[in-house]
Structures are given as C-alpha cells and as structure tokens.
Design a protein that fits this description.
The complex is a heterodimer of chains A (260) and B (342). Chain A is α/β, with parallel strands linked by helices and 260 residues long. Chain A has one domain: Rossmann fold (3-Layer(aba) Sandwich). Chain A is 28% helix and 30% strand. Chain A is built from six helices and 15 strands. In chain A, the strands form three sheets. In chain A, strands 11-10-9-12-8-1-6-7-13 form a nine-stranded mixed β-sheet, with helices on both faces. In chain A, helix 2 packs across helix 5 and helix 3 packs across helix 4. Chain A is globular and about 70 Å long. The relative contact order of chain A is 0.17. Chain B has 342 residues and is an alpha/beta fold. Chain B has two domains: 172 residues, Rossmann fold (3-Layer(aba) Sandwich), CATH 3.40.50.620; 137 residues, 3-Layer(aba) Sandwich (Rossmann fold), CATH 3.40.50. Chain B has a seven-stranded parallel β-sheet, sandwiched between helices. In chain B, strands 15-14-16-17-18 form a five-stranded parallel β-sheet. Chain B has a three-stranded antiparallel β-sheet with strand order 8-9-10. In chain B, helix 3 packs across helix 4 and helix 5 packs parallel to helix 8. The longest helix of chain B has 22 residues. The radius of gyration of chain B is 22 Å and the shape is elongated. Chain B starts with a strand and ends with a helix. The model of chain B has no long low-confidence stretch (mean pLDDT 95). The chains are: A alpha/beta (260), B alpha/beta (342). Chains A and B meet through helix 3, helix 4, strand 9, strand 10 and strand 11 of A and helix 3, helix 4, strand 7, strand 9 and strand 10 of B. The complex binds flavin-adenine dinucleotide (FAD) and adenosine monophosphate. The site of adenosine monophosphate has 24 residues of chain A, from helix 1, strand 6, helix 3, strand 8 and helix 4.
Chain lengths: 260, 342
C-alpha cells in the first residue's frame, strides 16, 4: 500500500486565541500537528502495519512549519515532505487542494490518501474532498472505521459517521478518506521515533518542483478577523437550602425569563 | 435581469433537514437585496414532494432531478448535477451537513470557485456576499467573501438563520430537470442504527452531562458488575438517565463532554465541543461539566446557559446565565418534576 497522509500545523486547541489589529495570536501556545490529523496518521500506520507499504506525510505551509511533519515522522511515517513557496501564502482550499493534488501525484501512485476531519484553525473540512475531486478519486469523509481493505482487489469498505447515524460505503481504490476521532487511538511517538524525527532532513517542494506555474489566487478572501461579541452574562446563582428548593427556583426563573 | 439565487435542499431518507428551509429563508432575504428569484435544487429519488415543500417555505421555483441511482447521496454524481444546474449562478446556498461539505467542496472545484462553509451571518455589499463564520472553534470570527469567482457557494450553519413558516398557499413552478447522470463509483452498503431522538444540531434545548454523571458513590451497582470501570460506567448511565429525562420533558437532545465520551459513558455522536458538535440551542443545561475551553467552544453561542455543578468555582459558571451549586443527582430529579408540571 502506498499511503499519503496530509497534515497541517495548527496552534494547540488549549490556546487562548486573540486578535489584535487583524493579527491572530495564540500567545506562547505551541504549534502542533492538527489534532484531527493525528488520527489520520495513526490510521495510515495501522494500515501499513497490516498490509505493508509506505506512508508519506505531506504538509503545505511556511518553511518553518515542520512541527506537524516531525510529529508524523516520530509516530512512524516513512517520509515527510514540506510543500512551501512564498507564492502559496494566503491560499484558500480551492488552491491548497490544487497544490496538494499535484504533490500527491509527484509522490506517485497512491492507493489511499488520508485527511483529518478538519483543521482546528480554519474549521473548513473540505480540503480532502477537493483533493479527491481533482485526482478523480472517490471521497469518503468522516470515516469512523475501515471495515475491509483489499489492496489486491482494489476495494475498500468503510463506516462513516453522518449526523443521522452510521453508514457503510464501499468503493474502489485509490480513494481519499477523512477520518474522525472514533477511528483509533493515536500512538505516542516512541523515544526512537522522536530521535529519528529530530535528525530527519525534511525535503521542501516548491511550486516549480510541482510544475505549478500558473499564478494561484484565492477565490475566498477574508478581509477581517474579529473577536466574537463578548457574552455579557452576569451569572445568577440560584440559592436555596435544599436541592428541591433550588430546582423549584430555577424552574421559576427560567419561566420568568421566558426561556421555557 | 438579476440571476436566480440557488438553494440546495439537503435531505435524508425522505425528509429535508430543517436547516434546508432555513437556507431557503436566508435566500429570500438575499433576493431582497440582490434581486432575482429563489430557486431550490432537489436531487434524489422521489423528491417531488420536497420540491413542493420548498415552494411552501419560500422558493419561487423548484428544480428536481430524479433517478433510482440517486436514492443514496453520493458526492460524485450529486456534485456533477448541481454544478450543471448552478453553473451560471451568482449564489448557491446549502445547509451545513456531512453531505453538503462534500457537495460544496466538489462543486467548488468543478466550477472553479470559492466555498464558505458554516456561515452564521450574511450581508451584501457591492453585489457580493459578506459572510461571517467562526474559526478556531468559535474563539474568533472571520468575515469572508468571494469577490470574483462565481457562484459564491455558502453552507449555512443550522439554527443560525430563522426557519420560515411554511405557507401552503404559495405557488411556484416545480420543474423536473433532465441532466446526464453519471454512475456513482461508490455504493452504500448499509446504515447503522440511526440515533433516536432529537438531533443535536437542530435542537432548541440541549441537556448535557460530563464526568460528574459518574460521581454518585451512594449508587450501588448490581452485584454482577464487579469490574471497577464497568461500575463507573453503570453509575454514569444512571446520571445520563436523569439527563435524558430532563431533556425529554423539554423536548430537547442529550449532549456530553468529551471526558464523558472518552470514559465510555455515552457514544461520541453526543459530544459537544471543539472536537464534537458545535451547537447553538436556545437553552443549554450543563450538568457535571467543568467548562473546559474546548467544551465552551462548542456551546458558547447558546442563548441561555444553565450550569449545575458541585464546585462553586467551576469555570462553566463564568459563561452561565443561571447557576446551581449542587449535586446533579439531587438537583435534576426535582427540576424534571417541576418542569413536567408547567
Ligand atoms: C484536542 C482536544 C480537544 C478537545 N475537545 C473537546 C470537546 O470537543 N468537547 C469537550 O467537552 N471537551 C473537549 N476536550 C477536553 C476538555 O479539555 C476537558 O477535558 C473536558 O471537557 C472535561 O469534561 P468534563 O467537564 O465532563 O470533566 P471534568 O473537567 O472532570 O469536570 C467534571 C465536573 O463535574 C463536577 N461534578 C462532579 N461530580 C458532580 C456531581 N455529582 N454533581 C454535579 N457536578 C459534579 C465537577 O465539579 C467538575 O466541574 C478536548 C481536549 C483536547 C486536548
Ligand atoms: N496546508 C495543509 N497541508 C496539508 N494538509 C492539509 C492542509 N490544510 C488542510 N489539510 C488537510 O485537510 C484536512 C481538512 O482541512 P480543512 O479543509 O482545512 O479543514 C486536514 O485535517 C488535513 O488533513
């Protein structure tokens, strides 16, 4: 199995994210492998362990965005490639998917391309499907389980989590999958893995390396990032001597405020 | 002449998502500032009824594409159909769901245009839409626009736009559209049990439980449960039973914190938060939930938040409108009883 997993570097979810003068800041919180992508990396490794093959982690980002790839290597990916070019700054998913699709083609002949459910910073959750469309592979998103995988027969069957419940879908390989948290428990990198990753030289592919010469421009613009309106609540503590009394008072207050 | 504003009606097993009608309502408001008619798009098997409903909810016309091969949503053929119908459109709206994430993504590639998912507010300026969507799990908001490419594809978050009242007297053209339908490459081989009860994203009231649901040492598990972990899960299930009873009385859905999900108290589909569902009900009752930043990210936009927690210093009280310091096992039953009588 030739497996490619696309990973993004994002601020830690515990960070307090603020915006000032249009600049987003997460203080001194660390940059990490997008939490959703940990599940994609883990799934890639498990599939490799069962079926053999090779796992390549790909990330598009600025030159210093190596953390996600280092973490992927430390977990056990065979190789990691950073796609970086000043021309790629500020792209939207329409263009990011074009660049990622070109990089996946350069890696060559994938059987599976794995994505996380979404990025925890931009929260869009559409990059994987757009890459699938560009490569002409089926898109299977929100996968909670690989039910069966038959590399020789070129078939995969997965279970997906829809809002309405679970759904099983079968399709041909190569395929694009995005995975949700239920699919596995990501491993911690081993000591050896961390050492290997810290020494690894991560190759950088530019637009020219990918044969992307056209001027990429984002279709989606985000002219302003703002802080959400402060939620002006003054908590009203419901007092009472017993739980019954508090429950009664709460019900009364909810009715008075027309909440119920 | 102003162009039509297209709305894709997402549906599952014969029923439209409520958010589909919210999108029709939002399209009506856009039509007021941009001009044009509201045109609903329906793709599936036997979607004629839904097309009629789209008119009642405010569409001026409804275009439907029907075929037996379209009984189950698959992104590839559905996207090709929608891309053909909306190829010259200025605006294509959809409700946000797992299906429309794929649909919007593929139509965006097919028509070389931008996609703005999960929109919570919209305005127009110079003929283009200026949308607002949450980023960083709602810690920030981003203004987003598609200045040049067309159509502007937006998916609207559930409950962010008001749902119009259906009007059975409205009339409009319902038209079957003939387009080439490609054979789907994937096959839906089955459905798991669909979750009973109200869906979290559409719920007006949500009652959620956290790790606190397991914390009732007085509860004695049945003798055949000897494993300590299983005893804990059994206790938590008694806690969630109280949560469920309150939710039932309020016609609401049951939510949970990640700690409760990770501990195996309740399935992941109930998880609220940054890595679960983002919800904005009218009323959110959090019982035995501390209020970690990742949980708050999923429910901070609820209109009224009620917190029930043993610990007076729990961070959840900072966001709550009403707070009760107490044991959920003591507070929930009389609260349910009290609300039953109202
Ligand atoms: C990458 C990442 C993503 C995450 N995503 C999410 C997410 O999507 N959603 C989410 O919820 N969390 C998420 N978390 C986890 C989050 O950080 C917290 O760990 C979690 O929300 C805590 O759940 P809790 O409030 O139920 O548990 P705790 O923090 O343990 O709180 C339990 C609370 O119950 C109270 N309590 C105990 N017993 C009782 C009783 N009998 N009656 C009343 N009150 C009682 C306690 O006082 C306490 O406040 C994420 C974490 C990370 C790192
Ligand atoms: N810059 C990037 N480089 C590599 N993979 C990415 C990048 N952005 C997004 N992805 C992948 O696409 C998934 C969905 O991202 P998004 O559409 O941004 O929410 C992520 O979980 C990653 O797997």
């Amino acid at each position: 199995m030739n497996i490619v997993v696309c990973v993004k570097q994002t601020p830690d979810t515990a960070a307090t994210v603020t915006v000032e003068g249009g600049e987003v800041s997460w203080g001194d919180a660390p940059l990490v492998l997008n939490p959703w992508d940990e599940y994609a990396v883990e799934e890639a490794l498990q599939i490799k362990e069962e079926h053999g093959g090779q796992v390549t982690a790909l990330s598009l980002g600025p030159e210093d965005a190596q953390e996600a790839l280092k973490q992927s290597l430390a977990m056990g990916c065979d190789q990691a490639i950073l796609i970086s070019d000043p021309a790629f700054a500020g792209l939207d998913t329409l263009q990011v998917s074009k660049v990622l699709a070109a990089a996946i083609e350069k890696v060559g002949d994938p059987d599976l391309v794995l994505f996380g459910r979404s990025s925890v910073d931009s929260d869009t959750g559409i990059t994987g499907t757009q890459v699938a469309r560009r490569l002409g592979f089926p898109s299977l998103i929100l996968v909670s389980k690989v039910v069966s995988l038959d590399p020789a027969g070129g078939k995969i069957e997965v279970e997906r989590m829809l809002e309405e419940g679970r759904q099983q879908v079968a399709g041909p390989l190569p395929a694009v999958l995005s995975v949700v948290k239920e699919i596995n428990e990501p491993r911690y990198p081993s000591f050896m893995g961390i050492r290997k990753a810290s020494k690894a030289e991560i190759p950088i592919w530019s637009g020219a390396d990918l044969g992307i010469s056209d001027d990429l421009s984002a279709a989606v613009h985000w002219p302003e990032i703002i802080a959400p309106p402060k939620i002006e609540t003054e908590v009203e503590m419901i007092e009472g001597d017993t739980a019954e009394e508090k429950a009664k008072k709460l019900a009364q207050r909810l009715a008075e405020e027309k909440v119920i | 002449m102003a162009k039509d504003i297209f709305v894709y009606i997402d549906h599952f097993q014969g029923e439209a998502l409520p958010a589909s009608w919210e999108a029709v309502g939002a399209a009506r408001s856009l039509a007021e500032s941009l001009g044009g008619d509201v045109a609903a798009i329906l793709v599936g098997e036997n979607v004629g009824d839904l097309a009629e409903q789209a008119i009642q909810y405010g569409a001026d016309k409804a275009l439907h594409v029907e075929d037996a091969s379209l009984a189950d949503f698959r992104p590839e053929p559905f996207s090709s159909i929608v891309a053909k119908i909306a190829s010259d459109a200025d605006v294509l709206l959809m409700p946000t769901s797992g299906r429309t994430r794929e649909l919007a993504a593929m139509v965006g590639v097919d028509l070389d245009t931008g996609v703005i998912p999960d929109v919570i507010e919209m305005d127009t300026a110079d003929g283009a839409i200026m949308a607002i969507r949450p980023i960083y799990a709602g810690k920030l908001l981003s203004k987003v626009t598609i200045p040049v490419n067309r159509p502007q594809i937006l998916t609207l978050r559930s409950r962010a736009f008001p749902k119009p009242e259906p009007d059975s007297n409205r009339s409009g053209a319902v038209e079957g559209v003939e387009v080439e339908i490609e054979q789907p490459v994937t096959e839906v081989t089955g459905y798991g049990e669909t979750e009973a009860g109200v869906s979290l994203s559409d719920a007006a009231v949500i009652v959620s439980g956290g790790r606190g649901t397991a914390n009732n040492p007085d509860l004695e598990p049945p003798a055949d449960i000897t494993d300590e972990k299983e005893q804990e899960i059994w206790r938590a299930q008694q806690g969630f039973k109280l949560i469920g009873e309150l939710a039932d009385v309020l016609g609401g859905a049951v939510g949970a914190s990640r700690a409760a999900v990770d501990a195996g108290y309740i399935p992941y589909s109930h998880q609220v938060g940054q890595t679960g569902k983002v919800v904005s009900p009218d009323l959110y009752i959090a019982a035995g939930i501390s209020g970690a930043i990742q949980h708050l990210a999923g429910m901070r936009t609820a209109k009224t938040i009620v917190a029930i927690n043993k610990d007076p210093d729990a961070p959840i009280f900072k966001l709550a409108r009403f707070g009760v310091v107490g044991d959920l096992f003591d507070v929930l039953p009389p609260l349910t009883e009290e609300l039953k009588n109202r």
